[in-house]
Amino acid sequence: MSWQTYVDDHLMCDVDGQKLTSAAILGQDGSVWAQSSAFPQLKPEEITGIINDFNEPGFLAPTGLFLGSTKYMVIQGEPGAVIRGKKGSGGVTIKKTNEALIFGIYDEPMTPGQCNMVVERLGDYLYDQGL
């Protein structure tokens, strides 16, 4: 299965009538493996900040999480595994696997829980596959 298929069929799927606004799978070096059309172009320092937060939980808390210059407030995640951010009525979930970062960005009416479920389910699957 291609990486784009994972984004199109598994991340941008319908969840109780709702969908993520954008999603992507990136390598931990910041290389884009696949993404939806609306996913923001990330800057190298944004990827570095995300990796630093996975390695040192709480790293992004003072400055916030930036994705394509959009700032998210970092909220409770799972240290070393999941970063969650909130901005207004939307937010982001980032799941780390062995080799990749899985991103899901949402806005209302999708809920944070629905976004977490979609992103973390795929992330857990890829992690279990050694990816």
From TrEMBL:
GO terms for cellular component: cell cortex; cytoskeleton. SMART domains: PROF. Keywords: Actin-binding, Cytoplasm, Cytoskeleton. InterPro entries: PFN, PFN_euk, PFN_sf, Profilin_CS. It holds the Pfam family Profilin. Occurs in many kinds of cells as a complex with monomeric actin in a 1:1 ratio. This is Profilin. It comes from Dioscorea cayennensis subsp. rotundata (White Guinea yam).
